[in-house]
Amino acid sequence: MQPVISIEGLTKTYKSGLQALKPTDLAIRKGEIFALLGPNGAGKTTLISIVCGIVTPTSGTVIADGHDIQKDYRKARSMIGLVPQELTTDAFETVWATVTFSRGLFGRAPNAAYVEQILRDLSLWDKKDAKIMTLSGGMKRRVMIAKALSHEPDILFLDEPTAGVDVELRRDMWAMVRKLRERGVTIILTTHYIEEAEEMADRVGVILKGQLILVEDKTALMKKLGRKTLTLQLQEPLEVLPPELSDWTLELKAEGHELEYVFDSNAEKTGVPSLMRRLSDIGIGFKDLSTRQSSLEDIFVGLVHQSKTEAA
Ligand SMILES: Nc1ncnc2c1ncn2[C@@H]1O[C@H](COP(=O)(O)OP(=O)(O)OP(=O)(O)O)[C@@H](O)[C@H]1O
């Protein structure tokens, strides 16, 4: 199937000299929910801002629904709705006016019934005559979504849609995203929450230091993410790992006082019970033990390491 967005060889170096985006290729499928996952400063906003025509790329091309976003900007832009991270909307306007105005900006004929529908879907209908400045932060965010949808885009970008929003709004947002997808809208969202990607996305891209290091179906990625780290506080420090433990991938930490084992908590056999038995058999005792879910940072580090070894 022809992708709805084709990104080829895209890079961005800001005037400061910082390369925020390394050469990137990505094809977004029509009708999918794609989550771009990455820590602060990874380049998520840079990537989506280029696709939305807000930031000029240093090199590369983006085709959105058959239109080159630079050569054919207006057409490409009219297919796209963007909900930016920051709230940028006119404080003195009413909700109704600001959403209707947005629609007009894209050259769409007025359609009161459509605007009413999106305001209702976003629980904003009873606020339609309220001035933006009188709304709560969560309501303002809903207005940003209504604006982005005002011109009936086929592709919707949500930049960190749930950063700093309450549980209720997050739930509403997710419900709305699913509803839009049912209508055939392609959705690309950026997030640094794994749970958000897990809950929402069909596919996930991981971006780290300007590099898109992996793009995978969510289910496959979630398997990789289900890793845990077991740390054993040893009674006696070890200088080296005994050969009897070579069946497990272990690391000595804290100058030999800690033994660390990273395992897949989704696997049928995690290797934890057998490791415990082997330790007991060879007389290695421990004072305490703890497990923790691998953090996003660990996972990224793991993925980077893995992609480097695979490339080598
Ligand atoms: N206009 C700019 N000029 C110079 N550097 C910039 C500019 N905008 C972003 N950067 C830098 O580019 C890098 C990527 O930033 P970007 O906003 O794309 O990251 P992000 O993944 O969206 O992060 P966050 O999750 O914090 O929003 C960062 O180091 C940032 O400081």
Write up what this structure looks like.
There is one protein chain. 34% of the residues lie in helices and 28% in strands. A hairpin with a 5-residue loop joins strand 1 and strand 2 (19-28). It folds into two domains: 5-223, Rossmann fold (3-Layer(aba) Sandwich); 227-293, Alpha-L RNA-binding motif (Alpha-Beta Plaits, 2-Layer Sandwich). It is an alpha/beta fold. Adenosine-5'-triphosphate binds next to helix 1.
Detail the topology: elements first, then pairings.
Layout: E1 5-13, E2 19-28, E3 33-37, H1 44-51, E4 59-64, E5 67-68, H2 73-78, E6 80-83, H3 95-105, H4 112-121, H5 137-149, E7 155-159, H6 167-182, E8 186-191, H7 194-200, E9 203-208, E10 211-217, H8 218-225, E11 227-234, E12 250-253, E13 258-264, H9 272-281, E14 286-293, H10 296-311
Parallel strand pairs: 3-8, 3-9, 6-7, 7-8
Antiparallel strand pairs: 1-2, 1-4, 4-5, 9-10, 11-13, 11-14, 12-13
Helix pairs in contact: 3-5
The structure holds adenosine-5'-triphosphate.
Adenosine-5'-triphosphate (ATP) binds at residues 14, 16, 18, 20, 38, 40-46, 192.
